[in-house]
Amino acid sequence: MEKVTYTNSKGQSIELNSLGPFYLSSITGTGTNKITITTSKGPGQDGVTVDDTLLEEKSPAIEGAIIGISLEDAYKKRRQLCNVFNPKYAGTLKYENDAGTYKIDCIPQDSPTFKNTDSVAQEFQIQLFAPNPFWKGTQESKSELAKWLGDFSFPLEIPADGIQMGHRQPSTIINIFNPGDVSCGLRVVFTALATVVNPSIMNVNTHEQIKIKKSMMQGDIITVYTGYGNNKAEYTAKGNTEFTNALGLIDLLNTTLPFMKLNPGDNLIKYNADTNVNNLECSIYYLPQYMGV
Prior knowledge:
By secondary structure, the chain is mostly beta strands. It is built from one helix and 25 strands. Helix content is 5%, strand content 47%.
């Protein structure tokens, strides 16, 4: 069963499904994209050299119908549909089928168009424009590179000489599997349990690295975002709720530019610090990207 939900930048939302009152008849443009192949040609070369393969934007199209309990009700629902699918505001399209739930950022190319405008059943069509051609999951995946594991269970008996409540994960390397079709950006969160000097992460397979140039104190948090058009860093000191721009804390001499991303499939990621690596917690969040769903 297919269902779509569109939410615009004002927070207004509308769902189209098989139950109504906004019925979904079909949605197209959820598959793969048009592709542009860039080439170059050298003197005397037979044929061309393929330089890159670029995916073009997506254009999802929705067809459906409004079923009102009266003609007045149908016109009210039509007004609601036009209000939510306002071309002046960008939004997010969430698409659900039997295999999963995905979302894509888009904007209406036009206001909804209607047929049978004098009927309680009014068919409509909506054309959308998605500048980023990839569908994403709706929930970030999380991997913890440095974490504490519990060593106790209930019922719990504590002997006189005490009990070990937990231990630190011994490995500094973890495999993160990206199930998507292309590489995706990361949200890397470094948290200091005590003093940590110059934390970093590295992709063992590609040797890409992100390194911070700072002595972090207990409770400090540095978050690094990667991905096309989204390279940034934020610093939050212990006890603060507001963050400051931390791009100046990136050690550019020891950081791969553009910032590392997760490649499709397996990615061996290692965390480290110049001193006191055991005082570092590191979590990685990511949203896989899919060419079609």
